[in-house]
């Protein structure tokens, strides 16, 4: 487990800024730190970080919350495991109808007829956190249209492209 290099930190913070904007400081606070372990990017408290060297590196699976990972091509990808860490700081939110919840959780995209409501001023290709009507975070995606165009679109128009959903915990249980 080690701290991120400048290049890695730039990639991580650029991606996080797209998801939560200037709330990165709130996410980190004074007691948390971002570290790298076996290509996984983790958000770890400083207290926990002091205890980790007591465990052999081969035995340590994970410490803290996983924000994402670096791919083989050295790109940073935010994973569904970061949903509970990032959703309180979401810039843009999208709520789906109860009837469309399962559709989204099966890795399908969201069409206009599935929309319950959307936060204002969401740009095209902006990251949105998807919630059910009870404000439970379900995942995140990329908007295919801006929030102004979505309200004027017909019912079968693609609105949100699914990037990650909580159904991945079941589909990819061995990987996560």
UniProtKB/TrEMBL annotation:
It comes from the Eukaryota. Keywords: Nucleus, Ribosome biogenesis, RNA-binding. It holds the Pfam family pre-PUA_NIP7. PROSITE patterns: PUA (PS50890). GO terms for biological process: ribosome assembly. Residues 1-79 form the 60S ribosome subunit biogenesis protein NIP7 pre-PUA domain. GO terms for molecular function: RNA binding. One of its GO terms (cellular component) is nucleus. Residues 93-172 form the UPF0113 domain. InterPro entries: NIP7_N, Nip7_N_euk, PUA-like_sf, PUA_sf, Ribosomal_synth_fac_NIP7, UPF0113_PUA. Interacts with pre-ribosome complex. Required for proper 27S pre-rRNA processing and 60S ribosome subunit assembly. Belongs to the NIP7 family. This is 60S ribosome subunit biogenesis protein NIP7.
């Amino acid at each position: 487990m080690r701290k991120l290099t400048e290049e890695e930190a730039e990639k991580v913070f650029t991606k996080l800024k797209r998801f939560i904007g200037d709330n990165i400081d709130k996410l980190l606070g004074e007691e948390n730190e971002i570290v790298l372990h076996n290509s996984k990017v983790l958000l770890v408290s400083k207290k926990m970080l002091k205890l980790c060297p007591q465990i052999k590196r081969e035995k340590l699976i994970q410490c803290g919350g996983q924000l994402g990972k670096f791919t083989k091509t050295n790109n940073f990808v935010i994973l569904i495991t970061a949903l509970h860490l990032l959703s309180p700081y979401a810039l843009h939110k999208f709520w789906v109808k109860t009837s469309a919840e399962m559709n989204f959780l099966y890795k399908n995209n969201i069409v206009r007829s599935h929309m319950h409501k959307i936060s204002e001023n969401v740009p095209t290709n902006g990251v949105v956190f998807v919630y059910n009507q009870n404000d439970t975070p379900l995942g995140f995606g990329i908007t295919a249209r801006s929030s102004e165009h979505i309200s004027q679109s017909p019912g079968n128009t693609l609105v949100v492209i699914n990037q990650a959903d909580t159904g991945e915990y079941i589909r990819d249980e061995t990987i996560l």
